[in-house]
Design a protein that fits this description.
With 615 residues, the protein is mostly helical. It has helices spanning 40-45, 63-91, 95-117, 126-133, 136-168, 174-181, 191-206, 208-236, 259-269, 277-281, 290-319, 330-337, 341-375, 394-410, 413-439, 467-492, 497-520, 539-552, 557-581, 583-611, and strands spanning 27-28, 47-48, 444-445, 455-456. α2 runs antiparallel to α9 (259-269) and α5 (136-168) packs antiparallel against α15 (413-439).
């Protein structure tokens, strides 16, 4: 079934987010009824209001398949790729604490995603949610952040698979041969990683069902593999590894050899593991019952994977000294060194297949996000073209594979980890802000006609904002400004007594602004109709913003700058192409052309009548 053609409602009032009872057309524009094209600012602030429900994609996934999709995406990236790196370089034996901290922050984001998924049935996840809440420009920023982080994550995962395959199959000789065989201008080229990207592409082109079947098979292998490693690690490990071992290289020792800052940095990097939250909600248009299943699948997959993260991180640190964990080959190497051959083979198979499945889900997710952006007119239309046989965007998948393969050549593995984590945190922050904006009634009672007293959104050109909108804007501005200042101070300032007192004082306006929104700004009427509502509004979304900002400021600055550069390329495309081809703008233009033609006909008819004089 084709997606419905967007239409524009032209009224006397500017349309922001239409009330539930009047929400019918797919797009509304923040502009008046005068016959003119929207200005650049108006185009950037246009918002989408249709909750979705129709699609060209194959609607075939049930709740179980959606849960497996989320588990496969989060499990492979977090346990087998990120955990060894955090143990060795950031948190040591306290890595499981880092996962608990990042899990708490991600838990708030899970509630926000579930809330939004129950509202809108469109593919695109945080990109679509931003389009509904903060407008077209904000949606473009979020969309290109998502594309950037996903196109970084996929090659990062293939590099992890490549290193483990080289150790297990080629006895650590292939990568050394590759360094000698290829010229220096090939940079970080990894032949195995590039071939794996091609396999991802082929499977995705076959259809979403093939991806789902592979994920279900891999889930069984993953659980067996993880269960084997955890049992062996806890049985053969040593409690002294958790606190008494000393790194001979630098003398670091203890449960947290890098201190509290190391645990926090590890928690920020651990967000690489939660990119898979996007994977579930991105499949909204391929779910049989998205309104019911998306919130449930998001929460269930997160709970399953969170438990596995904590248990596995503890098992690794308990099994071997933290400084001996050898990067992405840490699990296999530790088993090999202790002569545990059979567990080594089981864990190796699980590691390779699980990370492979995670990369497969990543390419699926980024292709659907690109599809959604292109379908809205902000990217080139061929990227939204769906093959009628396989019901997937084939050209889109091809382009994403090429860009992902290029990324694996120009970046090393550690930088990729920080870049993906930074992108994930930024998207989580914007998603929480979207929940706040969409949950509260920012309208006032303004008659839309002499005979009407319906509640309608205010016009952006109004000389005075409505009371609810004004109060919400002031409270949100205070909250966001104070939250950024507080988290930056905690991350970068020397924690003297005066600074700590000042930070505590900054916490008061954060809590005060959220409490003000809670008791002074009314919730939307349609909140009661949602299949899932984030509890504790506005405190849960507000705490989600603060925690994610805190973790964001603890990431490596270089990685964040490179991620911004990656996303800036997308914004260049938006301002050069998307802002002029947006379906909202084109629909507005078509509507205005129709109204202008009708008015010209009316004027012509009036002139003809004036020429007829009574004899």
């Amino acid at each position: 079934m084709l997606r419905s053609t967007p239409s524009v409602k032209v009224s006397q009032h500017v349309i922001g987010r239409a009330p539930a009872a009047r929400r019918g057309p797919k797009y509304h524009c923040k502009m008046g009824y005068d016959l003119r094209l929207p200005s650049l600012t108006e185009r950037m602030l246009q918002v989408r209001v249709d909750p979705g429900g129709t699609s060209q994609l194959n609607q075939c996934l049930n709740l179980f398949q959606l849960v497996i999709q989320g588990v496969a995406h989060m499990l492979g990236s977090g346990i087998f790729v990120v955990t060894p790196s955090i143990i060795r370089d950031m948190a040591g034996p306290a890595t499981f604490i880092s996962y608990i901290l990042s899990g708490i922050a991600a838990g708030f984001s899970v509630l926000c995603y579930s809330d939004l998924a129950s509202r809108y049935l469109c593919t695109g996840s945080a990109y679509v949610y931003s389009y509904f809440s903060i407008g077209e420009f904000g949606a473009a920023v979020v969309g290109f952040f998502l594309i950037g982080e996903m196109l970084i994550q996929a090659p990062a995962l293939t590099l992890g698979i490549s290193q483990n395959m080289d150790m297990f199959i080629f006895n650590s000789t292939f990568l050394r041969w590759q360094e000698d065989a290829f010229p220096e201008w090939f940079l970080n080229t990894d032949v195995i990683a590039l071939l794996i990207m091609v396999v991802y592409m082929v499977i995705n082109m076959v259809g979403i069902k093939s991806v789902s079947y592979i994920n279900m098979a891999v889930a069984v292998v993953s659980f067996i593999s993880l269960g084997t490693f955890c049992c062996v690690g806890l049985a053969k490990g040593d409690i002294d590894n958790m606190s008494k071992v000393v790194n001979p290289a630098d003398g670091r020792t203890g449960f947290a050899p890098f201190g509290i800052s190391g645990i926090i940095s590890g928690a920020g990097t651990a967000f690489f593991a939660f990119v898979g939250l996007e994977s579930v909600v991105t499949l909204a248009e391929e779910s049989i019952n998205p309104k019911r299943d998306l919130p449930r699948a998001t929460i269930l997959s997160f709970i399953v994977v969170m438990i596995l993260y904590v248990v596995t991180a503890f098992s690794i640190a308990y099994f071997i000294p933290w400084y001996e964990v050898a990067g992405t080959t840490g699990l296999i190497g530790s088993l090999k060194d202790k002569g545990l051959t059979i567990p080594q083979y089981i864990v190796t198979a699980g590691l390779i297949f699980t990370v492979f499945s995670c990369g497969l889900c990543t390419l699926t997710t980024v292709s659907r996000i690109v599809y959604s952006i292109a379908d809205d007119g902000l990217l080139f239309p061929f990227l939204a073209k769906v093959n009628p046989t396989t019901q997937v965007p084939i050209w889109n998948i091809l382009v994403c594979t090429i860009i992902g393969g290029f990324t694996s050549v120009i970046y090393d593995f550690e930088i990729l980890l920080h870049m993906v984590s930074g992108g994930t945190l930024m998207v989580f922050i914007i998603t929480a802000i979207a929940v706040l904006i969409l949950s509260y009634d920012l309208t006032e009672e303004v008659p839309s006609s002499p005979s009407s007293s319906e509640k309608t959104p205010l016009t952006s050109s109004s000389s005075s904002l409505g009371k609810s909108k004004f109060l919400f804007t002031v409270a949100m501005s205070l909250f966001l400004g104070t939250a950024i200042l507080l988290t930056a101070l905690v991350a970068y300032a020397n924690q003297s007594t005066r600074v700590i007192i000042f930070e505590v004082c900054l916490g008061l306006p954060i809590l005060g602004s959220l409490a003000f929104i809670k008791w002074k700004v009314p919730l939307n009427d349609d909140e009661e109709q949602l299949t899932f509502k984030s509890p504790g509004k506005p405190f849960v979304p507000g705490f989600c913003v603060v925690i994610n900002l805190f973790l964001l400021f603890h990431l490596e600055a270089r990685a964040l700058v490179q991620l911004l550069v990656y996303s800036a390329i997308g914004l260049f495309i938006y301002f050069g192409y998307g802002i002029f081809h947006s379906k909202i703008t084109l629909a507005k233009q078509k509507k205005m052309d129709g109204i202008e033609a009708s008015m010209e006909e009316l004027v012509a008819s009036s002139l003809d009548l004036d020429e007829i004089k009574p004899s």
